[in-house]
Amino acid sequence: MQNSCWLWLRCTTLNNVGIRLGFKDLGALAYQDSVLLVSNVENTLIPKLKYLESIGFSRDEAVGMVLRCPALFTFSVENNFMPKFEYFSEEIKGKLEELKEFPQYFAFSLENRIKPRHIEVIQSGIKMALPTMLKSTDEEFRELLTQGAG
């Protein structure tokens, strides 16, 4: 009984904060990433939205990104968002619109996926969309580089 009361309280708290932040279906969000049920809203969830706003997204755009990729709420601002955004803006020279359309960028490993593939794309001299570069399997990526398209 205590566990169900705790869960109800956490869901209610998350729902109240979600409404305040502009989320319409917190149940679906929590279902996709259940770690949100045990997250500290004020110290964990809100700072992630604030960071996305600080790099140029509106509140609605930041909320939209999290709805497309709820895992964004599970990433560290300092260890994930900041270094990946820095690489995106300084090396990839991408536009915010790309991240808004593909927030899953933040879910890929900077050292093991983003940097190596970006370097290969640059060395090949071809243009490749961010989702194509990161979501393709290793085999598909090699084929795209060989074909010179993407």
UniProtKB/TrEMBL annotation:
Pfam family for this entry, one: mTERF
Entry's Gene Ontology molecular function annotations: nucleic acid binding
Keyword Metal-binding applies: no
SMART domains from the UniProt entry: Mterf
GO biological process, one term: DNA-templated transcription termination
Keywords noted in UniProt: Transcription, Transcription regulation, Transcription termination, Transit peptide
Record-stated family: Belongs to the mTERF family.
Protein's recorded name: Uncharacterized protein
Gene source species: Hevea brasiliensis (Para rubber tree)
